[in-house]
Amino acid sequence: MVLKILLLLSIVLQLIAVLTAIRLTKITRFNFSWILFTIALTAMSFTRCGEYLQIIGDKNMKLPADFFVWLGALTSVCFAVGVFFVKKIFNNIALSNHTKTLTEKRILSAILSTEEKERWRFSKELHDGLGPLLSSTKMSLSALKMDELSKYNHDIVSNTLYVLEEAIRSLKEVSNNLSPHTLTDFGLARATQNFINRSTKGSDVKINLSTNLKTERFNTEVEVILYRVICELLNNSLKHSQCSVISLKLFYEDSMIFINYKDNGKGFNPKAVMDAGMGLSNINSRISSLKGQCNMVSSPGNGMNTIITIDISNDDRDKI
Ligand SMILES: Nc1ncnc2c1ncn2[C@@H]1O[C@H](COP(=O)(O)OP(=O)(O)OP(=O)(O)O)[C@@H](O)[C@H]1O
Ligand SMILES: [Mg+2]
User: Fold this and answer.
1) Which of 17, 41, 152, 203 has the greatest number of C-beta atoms within 10 Å?
2) How far is the CA of 273 from the centre of ligand 2 (A)?
3) What mean pLDDT comes out for the span 259-265?
């Protein structure tokens, strides 16, 4: 009785396995291995059914010994060949994961480059469109003979000139922040130094920049991304760390760009603040879009150190 129940149970289980294998055959677009597994499992179910008929002991239903041998052989062959083909499934999975990562990187890179293009276009519109208009307004006003004006009008014109100067200055600043002209014209080292000079105006923080970059120019995408990353690191230190010294090393050697950035501020737990703002996650995604490595180490009370490495051997590097 127990044997009968066990056999019935195993027949049911094997039929379920057959159905699952058929489903997987469809999902894996009729991959050969699942077809073979389906045949092997079906053959096994037939074997169990044969065994069941033997056990219930119907003399008329006596099956020939060959029946079991053939089914056994078919099962073994299908399983053996099927296992061999399973490798194909794993290869497909690995390939589709690789394609997915590649697509994600391409999308990210397209987003970043579109963003930069729009910034550049907007900055140019401001600089070349609105800038000259404000400058010529200022020149026209400056052409007024101030001595001949009443004190009242003199004050109004002086004030307007002052406001115009402010407007021109802040327009240049906005345009430069959107797309730094120094970066386009002179490259990463000069643009970084310019940004440092502007950021430390009126602040006690000492920023030491050391670099071996002179007139070297890199692919525009590399320069823009590294510039934005350095700006974000500096902004974060100045905004959050209460540091007194920042050290920034920027080196280029054997087709590799190395950035070693340190501040001696209050430090933080990088894992705990990942969602606090966009800055840190942008740094990571920008560096990974260049297939580079970014390692940020910080803990409360111990400042912050970020090391970035980028291999640009596949990029076009033009010297001026
Ligand atoms: N150098 C640093 N020293 C101390 N804390 C830091 C430093 N850099 C980042 N942090 C902490 O990590 C958090 C996340 O930084 P992140 O740059 O992602 O965002 P944010 O600067 O707050 O905002 P956003 O960059 O989007 O304007 C910060 O709010 C700050 O608490
Ligand atoms: Mg930030």
Assistant:
1) 41
2) 11
3) 97
CA 250 – ligand 2 centroid, Å: 20
| Residue 11 Cβ < 6 Å to ligand 1 | no
Q: Is the Cβ atom of 261 under 6 angstroms away from ligand 1?
A: no
Q: Name the residue type at position 81.
A: V
Q: Is 277 in the pocket of ligand 1 (CB under 6 A)?
A: yes
The answer to whether the CB of 276 is under 6 A from ligand 1 is yes
238 token code pair? 């100045």
Q: Is the pLDDT of residue 319 over 50?
A: no
Contacts 24+ apart (CB under 8 A), 50-56: 51/7, 52/4, 52/7, 52/8, 52/11, 55/3, 55/4, 55/7, 56/4
CATH of the domain spanning 182-320: 3.30.565.10
pLDDT tens profile 63-103: 787 888 898 999 999 988 888 888 877 888 899 999 998 89
Q: How far is the CA of 257 from the centre of ligand 1 (A)?
A: 24
pTM: 0.69
Angle between helix axes 131-142 and 151-178 (nearest 10 degrees) is: 160
Rounded Cα gap, residues 218 and 319, in angstroms: 8
Beta strands 206-211 and 293-298: pairing type?
A: unpaired
The residue whose CB lies within 8 Å of the most ligand 1 atoms, and thus the one to mutate among 237, 238, 240, is 240
What the block records as the tokens of 200 is 């430390």
Q: Is 266 in the pocket of ligand 1 (CB under 6 A)?
A: yes
